[in-house]
Design a protein that fits this description.
Length: about 240
Amino acid sequence: MRLKQLLILLVIICTNTLVFSQNKNGLGSWNILNITMKASPKWSLFTEGQIRSLSFYDEFHYYELKFGLTYKIKPNFSVTTGIGDYNTYSEGGNFESPIQNNEIRTWFQVNLKNPFDYIVFEHRYRAEQRFTSNDYRNRFRYRLSAVIPLQGKKIESKTFYLTAWNEISLLTKNLFFERNRVFMGGGYEFSENLALQTGYIYQYDYKINDETGRDFFNIALLYNFDLKQRGKHDFHPSTND
């Protein structure tokens, strides 16, 4: 129990230091609604919507909507395919014209979970095909995440948990690094169907002639249900971003 208390304190200190060191205009918002529908023990579908702002709930500049299908090969091994619509507007206002990028994106990914005592690590490998308003691009993403329950050894109804992840994005053109994202936060699973998750995201973008960083307050509502069963079922909180 002492280790869990130490982890809680560490995350709270790091999150507060990072978030409150930013001024209001430097901290944006990143809002997610994720719905997962389990069709069978092997198959599940999901839909996810996002809206983001560059200031704290002001200067909204981005939204996306996507759908996907996951097949569970083994309990800790699954594959996912999806398609989404992604829209980025000019900075300086709320959905300011002109639109900077309208994108249709498809992807295929492999998901591997590694339970270690009460911590669940997840590796996500994704290959994206991006049909943008400017050109066609390929991108590869790798995300390592960890989820730690704060009560007991697994996440179940009425459980608080900590979660963190780091993701890198690589482009195929010139084989250069595009982006790194870091998330730290936590959540609460109200039931086997519903969880609320919040935290801090730092996004670092690398461009040939420019280097930028972005900070976001993140909040996600995760709804999960089984299309065939009304009883309890496994629910491991995770977003599909």
